[in-house]
Here is the input.
Amino acid sequence: MTPSSFAPLRAEVRAFLEEQRAAGTFVPAVDSWLAGWDEEFSRTLGERGWLGMTIPTEHGGHGRTYLERFVVTEELLCAGAPVAAHWIADRQIAPSLLRFGTPAQREEFLPAIARGTSYWAIGMSEPDSGSDLASVRTRATRIDGGWRLSGTKVWTSGAHRAHAFFVLARSASLDPAHRHEGLTQFLVRLDAPGVQVNPIHSFDGSHHFNEVVLDGVEVSDADVLGEVGQGWRQVTSELKFERSGPERFLSTFAGLAGLTANGLPVRASAAGVGRHAARLAALHHLSYDVATRLQANQPAELLAAMVKGIGTRSEGDIAEDLAEWAVDELDAEVDRLATDGLSRRAGFTLRGGTNEVLRGIVAKGLGA
Amino acid sequence: MEISNAGLDVDPDFSSMLDRLFADLAPRTWSDREPAGLDRDAWRQVDELGLTLLTTPEDCGGSGARWPEMWTLHRSAARHGVALPVGEHDLLGRWLADKLGWTAGDDVVSVGVARCGGAVDVPWGADVDTVLLVEVHGDGAAVSRHASADLTWSTDGRLPTSRRARTHVPGIAKRLQVAPDDVAELRLRGALLRSVQIVGALERCVDLAVEHAAVRVQFGRPLLAFQAVQGMLADAASETALASAAVAAAIREADAFQDLRAARTSVAVAKSCSSHAVGPVTRAAHQVLGAIGTTREHDLHRFSMPAFGWRGEFGTGADWDAELGASVDATGLPAVWHRIVDGLPA
Here is the structure.
């Protein structure tokens, strides 16, 4: 498959987005995969067949390739469309359920994810456990027919609106010599008794982060994801999907497009704008290369870590320049894109594994 | 670094043949004497394999290979530090001579592009047999042909290891007009060649730095165990991989479109990203190597210095950025972006 073979699919998505935009369904925004929660828009995408694309048809999906999904998500991000409601479910939850889920779990959730009606969050980080995931302290205690979960998850994006989340918990006591053992993933419904979701407001007043307190939440054995004690391996095996996608460099694309829509801003040099465009293009090629490897089942961890490391820095650099170029533009639309970009910038290089952790992974890959 | 061809159709046998050849050949082409000259024995060896006219059509006496083979050849040559004007000869000199209907025989040919008359820098100018000097004016250009030995050469402003030489376009010379499209294509060919070479050279810089960091022990640990060093190496490798992805995409388009001008947006991206990677990658490599990397004895400069030279030729990163920025100004970002991601001819 050459990139040009996807041009018709891209054109189809672009035409749809143009139509939606003209109809006022959405206004292009930066960081729309995290901040743009619009359930109706997600359902519309589901009807179009653009969610759960890589889920096999027998599980309610569309049996398409990673490259086709890559192409569709790239178009959605470039348009700054509101895709946050389904984003985590479509990107991460569905592949995990396919790989580790039970038939019952797949049947319950995969068709709904493909329809754009099942929304998810991820419960990994904790107050004392950020990049060092093996240090999680949420406890899973064995009870008759299931497990009781106690602990606190933080930075849980969308938990106040999502239906469920994956919780990484310690199901066996910590063995300091084997820190990655004894962890298990659980599927927890956010309306279950004992679950309390508390908002964490970002400094720009937006709300996507939450603290989720699990106070003796009981889940059944049927809610274990994969194997008990295999949580670490399950989580890390999915990281290449999470790290290499176009959302790791396109978070501010809609801002760059918006600020240059009527010619370059007075304060921007052609070379300054062109350099961002060139770098985004190269990131697209590198990320596409990773998607090709994922499709072919080839190793891609190192390249995926590279994409996320340099991609998130680049989208942040764009945010900085946009804010400077927006000075004196005196256009409400331009101001909104620029200020949102700058406000969200700090999160780009943190979420999904900090850039410092990624550098370590890349260096290890080089030295091996 | 792992050699990724990013989906390009490259014959692995051709690739490994080149690696063996160039690993053996490269040190013979290095000379720290001034003037260094062109190693004619090494040239003949490469010539006999049909590599000095790799992409020249067969009816013009070449091997008729395509852009993916060009990528393999020049990336490998730069990765091994082979100092021979193969790209100048095949992709620029002979291409232009054939366009103009000039026969060049067995001459080694290079091309210099003068900005506005007067001084002109020519890669390998003093060392080749025939030099074509292109004078760009208004909306066209004129080209004149010279025996290298008939021109006066200086080494003003050239970097260590560089074989670029400076001359003046003679006032009295027979000139032929060159179409603007051909001038544009010459620049694109040069930019793509330099982008490929930069990728090869930067890959070797990263490899040399990683190899050194793995064995050099300080404070009781190899350098690779220090987080600060890991960070530098990871960034250098990432920038190199990014440039490589951009250049491979341009090669893929050049091959698919059979017309380099239709791939000009991707060539611009390739030259921008490869040129901008030179500073950060060589800075990190030299920092990791320490003082030994600053010496003539160590090989690092045979990769870092050529990369700096290539960065400035056939449009700097900023030059190509400005062209892309002007396109964004004229048509908006989505139109430029669609051309890139759709992979369709401009």
Observations:
- The two ends of chain A are 31 Å apart (CA to CA).
- Residues 122-229 of chain A form a domain with the Butyryl-CoA Dehydrogenase, subunit A; domain 2 fold (CATH 2.40.110.10).
